[in-house]
């Protein structure tokens, strides 16, 4: 069994975990490499755009020198003006070509990564999803996929162009002018980058705090809205608002600190650039006065500096954005690094369902080593028969269903279907053979038709209607204003508990599995609805191997065998009449429920 890595989502966790920027960039590389041909074309367009851009000041110098001639010798430099216009147009054209070529790379990377993340999350264990915080993860996914686009965008549209332009400009300055111009330019850039890196490394902790607190606030908001009814029942609206506000207060403090330090960073960057530009212009002006440079040379150097330092000024913003994006990306790659707890064996065969008999052999299970859930559980469900499991809450009944579906692995023992250990077959084939009606039915926020049809997306319309009729919900749906197109709301909250369970029953019927599991499937139904459903369930379960986990004993009196569980063990087993004659725990439960029914 693979051990999942811990998923960090708290401020403390983030503070403890260093960000591996190089690793994140390496993880991102495959998404870029997939379109390497298009990337090379985009980079070629980028180089051409920068060559045209650098050519503009060179032509501008020639124009100034030409126009500086005495009026008697001056003529309209039409060719230079046309070249000047053509270079500006070419720079814009090649930039747009670069953007158009790279758009496919950027958005395909986002699509592929988003799809991979969702698929990966579906592969993770039930344990991970029970422990996760949906709101926090949704924010991390949103920021993570967006960060990949940001990094690709900044690198191809900002960093690489700036480096290319810097190389061209320094080369021209070095060849045509005194070496001091190149040295001042390079020293200014080096000081600028060093200052930016040092300041960013100092203030990055505030971004950590902002991200963690934003995720925490989002989680709290979603949790309170999902549990809207609970909040209203206990009158805790003010408590939820206060809890949310406290988190936002902490986020506000971190955000203010982040902004103040960013202002200091921006001023320092501007000061470095101002000093560098001033120094170069002093030397250039003196050279003009000494006759070593023309006025056109002065214009050229000034144009080069403006052309270089303007994007360099934004390089600080870009560096911050890339660093923040890599931080956001780190949490997303944390999710991708999570290892599924349940994995198929290499080349695992599909389950040969056969007649569908199920056997638990000396099964033991625990969630944590100090909390034993099942102890030496053994029983058989013969093909086509119904076996029921009853017992008090916490006895381990529902765990049997989760183990059968292989949401967890048994700690020891085996579960066999048609003589095959379920650990040795593919999970997809195993779950395809099992239909379940859970105790707590959660529906998609979509139509009733969609939720039933979800069990078998290729099923014809008539099969969906037939399943609804067998589940005794067709008439109810037909009376609704929108009928089968009625939207059920978040988690199905617009339907009653009984209506949701009947949708779940219809969904299980439509799936047509060989093995059926009813996990207290009628617990939310009133007595009248329960009687109507029981007949439908009996019809559906006919010729199916059926495991019924029941609270109401009246629903399982016809079971071929009834297992009574207590503290993770099977303490009694037999038919309904045999267990009543035994006069043990089952008989006590039966008597108690009969008394409750009589009193109501």
In short:
The protein has helices at 11-16, 21-33, 36-67, 78-123, 126-131, 134-176, 179-226, 228-233, 237-289, 295-337, 397-404, 427-432, 448-453, 461-470, 474-479, 497-511, 527-541, 576-582, 585-599; strands at 358-368, 371-381, 386-391, 412-417, 420-421, 434-437, 515-519, 545-549, 561-566, 569-574.
Write structural notes for this entry.
- The protein is of the alpha/beta class.
- It has two domains: 11-337, Up-down Bundle (ABC transporter transmembrane region fold); 358-599, P-loop containing nucleotide triphosphate hydrolases (Rossmann fold, 3-Layer(aba) Sandwich), CATH 3.40.50.
- Helix content is 64%, strand content 10%.
- Helix 17 links the parallel strand 7 and strand 8 (545-549).
- Helix 3 (36-67) crosses helix 6 (134-176), helix 14 (461-470) packs across helix 16 and helix 16 (497-511) packs parallel to helix 17 (527-541).
- The radius of gyration is 35 Å and the shape is elongated.
- The protein starts with 10 loop residues before the first helix and ends with a helix.
């Amino acid at each position: 069994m693979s051990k999942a890595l811990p998923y960090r989502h708290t401020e403390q966790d983030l503070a403890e975990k260093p960000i591996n920027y190089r690793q994140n960039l390496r993880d991102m590389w495959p998404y870029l490499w997939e379109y390497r041909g298009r990337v090379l074309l985009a980079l070629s367009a980028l180089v051409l755009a920068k060559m045209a851009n650098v050519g503009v000041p060179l032509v501008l110098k020639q124009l100034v020198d030409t126009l500086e001639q005495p009026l008697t010798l001056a003529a309209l430099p039409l060719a230079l003006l046309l070249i000047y216009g053509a270079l500006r147009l070419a720079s814009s054209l090649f930039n747009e070509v670069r953007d158009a070529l790279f758009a496919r790379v950027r958005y395909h990377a986002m699509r592929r990564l988003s799809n991979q993340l969702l698929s990966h999350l579906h592969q993770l264990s039930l344990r991970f999803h029970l422990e996760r915080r949906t709101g926090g993860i949704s924010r991390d996914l949103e920021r993570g996929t967006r960060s990949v686009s940001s990094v690709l965008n900044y690198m191809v549209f900002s960093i690489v162009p700036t480096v290319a332009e810097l190389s061209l400009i320094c080369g021209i300055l070095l060849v045509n002018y005194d070496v001091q111009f190149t040295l001042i330019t390079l020293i200014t850039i080096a000081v600028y980058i060093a200052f930016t890196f040092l300041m960013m490394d100092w203030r990055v902790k505030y971004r950590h705090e902002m991200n963690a607190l934003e995720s925490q606030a989002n989680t709290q908001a979603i949790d309170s809205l999902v549990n809207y009814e609970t909040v209203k029942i206990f009158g805790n609206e003010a408590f939820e608002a206060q809890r949310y506000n406290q988190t936002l207060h902490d986020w506000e403090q971190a955000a203010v600190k982040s902004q103040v330090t960013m202002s200091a960073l921006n001023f320092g960057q501007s000061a470095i650039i101002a000093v560098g530009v001033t120094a170069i212009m002093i030397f250039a002006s003196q050279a003009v006065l000494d006759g070593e440079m023309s006025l056109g040379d002065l214009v050229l150097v000034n144009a080069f500096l403006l052309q270089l330092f303007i994007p360099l000024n934004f390089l600080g913003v870009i560096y911050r954005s890339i660093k923040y994006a890599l931080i956001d990306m780190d949490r997303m790659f944390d999710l991708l690094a999570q290892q599924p707890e349940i994995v198929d064996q290499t080349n695992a065969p599909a389950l040969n369902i056969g007649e569908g008999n199920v056997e638990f052999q000396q099964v033991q299970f625990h969630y944590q080593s100090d909390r034993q859930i099942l102890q030496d559980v053994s029983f058989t469900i013969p093909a086509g028969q119904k076996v029921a499991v009853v017992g008090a809450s916490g006895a381990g009944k529902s765990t049997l269903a989760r183990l059968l579906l292989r949401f967890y692995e048994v700690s020891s023992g085996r579960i066999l279907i048609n003589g095959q250990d379920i650990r040795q077959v593919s999970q997809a084939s195993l779950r395809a053979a099992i239909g379940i009606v859970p105790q707590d039915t959660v529906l998609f926020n979509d139509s009733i038709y969609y939720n039933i049809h979800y069990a078998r997306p290729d099923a014809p319309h008539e099969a969906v209607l037939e399943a609804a009729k067998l589940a005794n919900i067709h008439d109810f749906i037909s009376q609704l204003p929108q009928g089968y197109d009625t939207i059920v709301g978040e988690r199905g909250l617009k339907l009653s508990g009984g209506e949701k369970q009947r949708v779940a029953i219809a969904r299980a019927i439509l799936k047509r599995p060989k093995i059926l599991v009813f996990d207290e499937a009628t617990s939310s139904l009133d007595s009248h609805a329960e009687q109507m459903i029981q007949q439908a369930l009996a019809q559906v379960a006919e010729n199916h191997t059926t495991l019924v986990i029941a609270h109401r004993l009246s629903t399982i009196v016809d079971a071929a065998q009834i297992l009574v569980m207590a503290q993770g063990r099977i303490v009694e087993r037999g038919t309904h009449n045999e267990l009543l004659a035994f006069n043990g725990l089952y008989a006590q439960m039966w008597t108690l429920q009969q008394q409750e029914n009589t009193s109501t």
